[in-house]
Write a structure and sequence with these properties.
CATH architecture of one domain: Up-down Bundle
Helix content: 40-55%
Shape: elongated
Structural class: alpha/beta
Distance between the termini: 71 Å
Radius of gyration: 40 Å
Number of helices: 24
Largest sheet: 5 strands, parallel
Strand content: 5-15%
């Protein structure tokens, strides 16, 4: 109601201003006002045709138009005022020049009827607008939402199975999630069988997972497989400045879905409106968000189960959702969508390269092996980047080299045409050689795939290391190896030049995050004990979730771990100084070293590193 009254008030003000302007324009007339001196001059020149006088006010018309010396422009009809002290024998002058003195005004004014109609016009317009809005509201077209927001009811994105619909054939790498959603599809296809057995389908399915893992694609695939109408909306579309619009739009959406049931309602990024509600009074957008959430809760809880409407929602922040939203009876099934494993990545790449002509040398299994942790969206972008490179090179097919270069561009950044001084270039070569050599020497560390001193993105050089297979749990030894490898650049500069430069900023951020996680989250510190002292988003909440003594212990332990790793990094680089110099010389000469060349230059057999890791694991009793 507040939104409707505000809209009508603004409309009334606009109509009043427009009507006032029109009335002022027509009331003023088009004839200019001239001075009496100018009028006398025109009479003496015999250029006045006729006049009309009422008191000392004079209206007149010239025989031919003249320039107005006061107001500018040319005029024919005019107004003027005769001064009371004038004694110029005006009547004799007018008679001598044969000027007609009329009994009717030269400029005719509006009559009573015209004035009345113009006065009533704004009122008539306001009444018409009031009736129009009242009819829309009574017709149920959204109330304030229909008045100031979306004017048409939502339409399903996909009504019937067609040639372009999305199905599970377009989804790969997340087979376990597809299995969770198969029964949703089966319920939408055969609802009578479930009703016969007294089974009820979950009223809502919440898809959670990192961005790009395919949550929206899964929702569309469910609708495509079941062949039912699919209503898609982003949670941000419900939020407006005016309170009540979001709740109205929710009602519209669910009302339309019930009309064509069985159907699917998909709400993307539901954490925008589904965050846990706080206590106390709230105003503005926060109040609007809570009203919208309340309406969603009411609509979902009102399902009878026989209506055949399934609600799918996606979010990457399931931890902040309101508990009332995830309780049984609403989103009572939570499906976690994780990044794909190696087999899943290969299947995803095959889907995204179906329409890309591939050269015989393309090995998608190899590409999948070198892309651990990538999501479906990132793999789709990788295939597209490789195709773009092939087009730029005027090739007929996409080659393995295109995929390799596209992967470097995605992971490392685009090459920069930066000319570095020779001394800085040499220091960068030692920096990257330190990273690479420690990665080769450290047992259990990720293999070094590529070393380059070509500037990419914000980095002057890059060392790329990726694991042989996907890792889901990390040992303390592996994490210490990560810290040692990350400190390798700074340690190499310290060993060779005795200085520390600003090139290690990103390395130190990585080291700090790993050390903080080891101490405060994963129980890898004897002094702190086996507890989680900081939340997972410790970068934002650091210093707010633990006692001051605990925070001091965390800082002390972090510093101890990093110092021990740095000393070990410096010691290993001093012990293998010859291999460090060899890698730096090769980088200065070639700028980029691939995996095989890097291990050959360092004189470290690739298999020897794996054997050392196996022996070290046996020493610790790990099979």
């Amino acid at each position: 109601m507040r939104g409707r009254w505000w809209g009508l008030l603004v409309t009334a003000v606009i109509v009043f201003l427009v009507a006032y302007g029109l009335l002022s324009h027509y009331s003023a007339g088009n004839e200019p006002t001239i001075s009496y001196t100018e009028f006398s001059r025109q009479v003496d020149a015999g250029n006045v045709s006729r006049i009309y006088s009422k008191g000392d006010a004079i209206q007149g018309q010239l025989k031919s138009d003249r320039d107005n010396p006061e107001g500018g422009g040319r005029y024919t009809k005019f107004r003027t005022q005769r001064p009371a002290f004038a004694d110029d024998k005006l009547w004799q002058s007018l008679s001598g020049h044969h000027v007609t003195v009329t009994a009717q005004p030269v400029v005719q004014e509006r009559g009573l009827l015209a004035n009345l109609l113009l006065s009533l016009a704004p009122i008539a317009i306001l009444v018409a607008l009031w009736v129009f809005f009242a009819r829309r509201i009574r017709a149920g077209l959204g109330g304030p939402g229909g008045l100031l927001g979306r004017k048409e009811p939502p339409r399903p994105v996909e009504l019937q199975p067609g040639t372009q619909r999305t199905t599970f054939m377009d989804v790969a790498g997340i087979d376990e999630v597809k299995g969770e959603l198969d029964d949703v599809v089966d319920f939408l296809k055969h609802p009578d069988a479930y009703r016969h057995m007294g089974a009820k389908m979950p009223r809502g399915v919440l898809l959670t997972g990192p961005p790009g893992t395919g949550k929206t694609l899964l929702a569309r695939a469910v609708a495509g497989e079941a062949g039912v109408p699919f209503f898609s909306a982003s949670a941000s579309e419900f939020i407006e400045m005016i309170v009540g619009v979001g709740a109205s739009r929710v009602r519209e959406l669910f009302a339309e879905a019930r009309k064509v049931a069985p159907s699917i309602v998909f709400i993307d990024e539901i954490d925008t409106i589904g965050r846990a509600r706080g206590g106390g009074a709230s105003v503005g957008g926060h109040d609007e968000r809570e009203q919208t959430l309340n309406q969603i809760l009411t609509e979902m809880d009102g399902f009878s189960g026989s209506e055949g409407v399934i609600v799918l929602a996606a979010t990457n922040r399931a931890d902040v959702l309101d508990p009332a939203l995830t309780r049984p009876g609403r989103f009572d099934r939570v499906v976690s969508v994780s990044p794909p494993d190696r087999g899943g990545r290969e299947a995803i790449l095959r889907i995204h390269t179906r329409r890309i002509p591939l050269a015989p040398d393309v090995d998608l299994a190899r590409v999948a092996r070198t892309t651990p942790g990538m999501t479906g969206a990132e793999l789709a972008n990788l295939a597209n980047e490789a195709a773009l490179l092939a087009v730029k090179r005027r090739q007929q097919r996409v080659t393995q080299a295109d995929f390799s270069e596209a992967l470097e561009k995605v992971q490392l950044g685009a090459e920069r045409a930066l000319v570095m001084p020779e001394e800085e270039r040499r220091r960068t070569a030692y920096h990257e050689s330190g990273h690479a050599l420690l990665g080769m020497l450290q047992p259990g560390a990720d293999p070094v795939r590529k070393i380059t001193i070509v500037p990419r993105g914000r980095a002057l050089g890059v060392t790329l290391s990726t694991p042989e297979s996907d890792k889901y749990a990390y040992t303390e030894e592996y994490l210490r190896g990560r810290i040692i490898g990350a400190l390798g650049g700074m340690a190499a500069e310290h060993v060779v030049y005795g200085v520390v430069t600003t090139g290690s900023e990103h390395d130190l951020e990585q080291v700090t995050n790993i050390a903080r996680g080891m101490v405060a989250r994963w129980g890898m510190s004897e002094h702190l004990g086996r507890l989680s002292a900081l939340p997972s988003d410790a970068q934002q909440a650091y210093g707010l979730a633990a006692a001051p003594q605990t925070l001091d212990t965390i800082d002390t332990e972090m510093r101890r771990i990093v110092d021990e790793c740095y000393e070990e990094a410096c010691r290993k680089l001093r012990d293998h100084r010859g291999q460090l110099d060899a890698l730096a010389r090769a980088l200065l000469e070639n700028e980029t070293l691939e995996e095989a060349d890097a291990y050959r230059v360092a004189g470290i057999p690739r298999l020897r590193k794996d054997a050392e890791h196996h022996e070290d694991a046996e020493r610790h009793g790990v099979p």
